[in-house]
């Protein structure tokens, strides 16, 4: 598998140990920042993983999601609930002290997300670096490139394929939902409200007891800030419980449940539910592919001095 990862890194223009000479402690500084933040707030790992996904799927892994301002990616309602920005900014501030204008925000985010998975109990992964920061961040690019929780399998496959990601990558990367939480509105389409304001499940495949628990946590008219754990069993642990939940018909989103109901992906869900080792092996490969999508290298883009704004 290592040779495959090496080929992928080379084809993307990234290099393992890219900062070995220019900033040898770069990866350690990011990891220490992540550990400190996650110890204080155990929800940080899931937020960073989601932040990376939203960065890489729009404009490639170039830190464009980190840019602030009107009409940037961050201004889209789909990105309103993103978090983890402060961890990237903290690591960037530290790195600017020791290695000014050297380590990109895109690399910091990729490394922090990588470390977040390990912190939460997932596999330790080597990833290549050398990403450059993009100078374009447009709100209009967000919706066409982000998976909606109500997507069908075909819609998800079409989007993933356009990023060079496979059916197997889709099943594997969906395993990120083993940690984190979601707002009630992100799965409200699975319920219908009657004239008395009572909710009932639309989706008969959803486990009845689980569906009733969700209704209790997210009744009609619930406060928009309320969230529910993606994984009702081990919400802070990066493990293969997500796939066991799918088999038990306890996938929170329609886009989760379809992975088990669709014949193209069912066997892979069953394989990962049986073997955490196999999930972690495949996660290593799929995460490397995700974090290499559309990267800018060489003289493309720039290395920002602040992750919130382009230089100059």
From TrEMBL:
Tell me what reaction this enzyme catalyses: 2 a phenolic donor + H2O2 = 2 a phenolic radical donor + 2 H2O
Where along the sequence does the record put site: Transition state stabilizer? 50
What name does the UniProt record give this protein? Answer: Peroxidase
Species of the source? Nelumbo nucifera
UniProt GO cellular component terms: extracellular region
Q: Is Glycosyltransferase given among the entry's keywords?
A: no
Which parts of the sequence bind Ca(2+) 2? 178, 231, 234, 239
Task: Classify the main location.
Answer: secreted
- Which cysteines bridge via disulfide bonds? 23-99, 56-61, 105-307, 184-218
What biological function has been recorded for the protein in this entry? Removal of H(2)O(2), oxidation of toxic reductants, biosynthesis and degradation of lignin, suberization, auxin catabolism, response to environmental stresses such as wounding, pathogen attack and oxidative stress. These functions might be dependent on each isozyme/isoform in each plant tissue.
Q: Which Gene3D superfamilies has this protein been placed in? A: 1.10.520.10, Peroxidase, domain 2
Location(s) in or outside the cell = Secreted
Catalytic residues, per the record, are 54
Q: Which residues form the Plant heme peroxidase family profile domain?
A: 13-311
Top class in the EC scheme: oxidoreductase
Q: Which GO terms describe its molecular function?
A: heme binding; lactoperoxidase activity; metal ion binding
